[in-house]
Write a structure and sequence with these properties.
- This protein is an alpha+beta fold and 277 residues long.
- The protein is built from nine helices and 14 strands.
- The strands form five sheets. The protein has a six-stranded mixed beta sheet with strand order 5-14-13-8-9-10.
Length: 277
């Protein structure tokens, strides 16, 4: 994936140079030949994905080493507060109650049927990326692609920590395989085209929701645009020694940024993320 400058906006493109999603429209949007669709609930989805700071960029100050050190120490105290807060939040996340999965989900994989249990691949924990890719979708979400691009170097370390990573999308497996191979990804990616997995975990809208114009995303009701059926998210599952499966955590919208290590680097630089969204 490359990042190109375009009139002050970040324009990410796929490896063939074709633009396939605008970051500042959030995970819940893409471009089609008819133009740009806004995310579900219009501004609501965009609000889920935009930066929370309304601070106007300040002019650069050139100071002495002593002044810089004093400012850095002041910021360091706030960074330490944030680190401690993140530690407490992570503990609360791990302490969430579990929900048992009673439905037997069967996905389509490149070589045949794959059950949810089989996706664990012998480990007790499973991380699933809900990739925003519906049937027949010609353009693909840059946020999802950026997220799964991170797997190249860290997947082996996840596996050493008893965690299997897999991606699920509602597109048919033939379409998924074409895109996966084009992007050079080698992680497990299966299709939920013939089961209710996406609908049960609220990353796809049902026909009834589309007809009603109201659906459920990120733990609240949102307006549904007919052009937006599939959205993005991340979920965690656990399997106990008896083979019972539990859902422990899901996050959507900007919640997925915690899995985007690139932002930690960009946020440490003067230009930051240099994005509109």
């Amino acid at each position: 994936m490359s990042t190109l400058r375009n009139n002050g906006r970040v324009d990410r493109r796929n490896r063939d140079g074709q633009q396939y999603c605008d970051r500042d429209m959030g995970h819940g949007s893409w471009r089609t030949d008819q133009g740009a669709f806004k995310g579900a609930n219009g501004m609501a989805i965009k609000e889920e994905c935009k930066m929370n700071s309304d601070e106007t960029p300040k002019p650069v100050r050139i100071v002495s080493k002593e002044e810089w050190r004093a400012a850095r120490i002041e910021l360091l105290a706030k960074e330490k507060e944030l680190t401690a807060m993140k530690d407490r939040l992570a503990a609360q996340r791990r302490a969430l109650p579990w929900v048992r999965i009673d439905k037997d989900y069967v996905f389509a994989g490149p070589t045949g049927a794959v059950t949810l249990s089989q996706l664990f691949a012998g480990r007790s924990q499973l991380f699933i990326k809900h990739f925003m890719m519906g049937p027949g979708q010609a353009q693909h979400c840059v946020g999802c692609s950026l997220e799964v691009d991170h797997l190249a170097g860290i997947r082996v370390h996840l596996e050493h920590h008893d965690l299997t990573y897999a991606v699920v999308a509602r597109a048919p497996i033939q379409e998924i395989e074409l895109f996966r191979q084009k992007m050079g990804w080698d992680f497990t990616w299966v299709s939920s085209y013939r089961n209710d997995f996406n609908f049960d975990f609220n990353v796809s809208f049902t026909d009834d929701e589309i007809a009603l114009g109201r659906g459920f995303y990120n733990y609240r009701e949102v307006d549904v645009h007919p052009g937006i059926v599939d959205l993005s998210g991340d979920s965690v599952f656990v399997k106990d020694p008896e083979g019972r499966i539990y859902h422990t955590y899901s996050t959507f919208g900007r919640g997925g940024e915690q899995f985007l290590g690139i932002y930690a680097y960009l946020d440490a630089t003067p230009k930051g993320r240099d994005e509109n969204g």
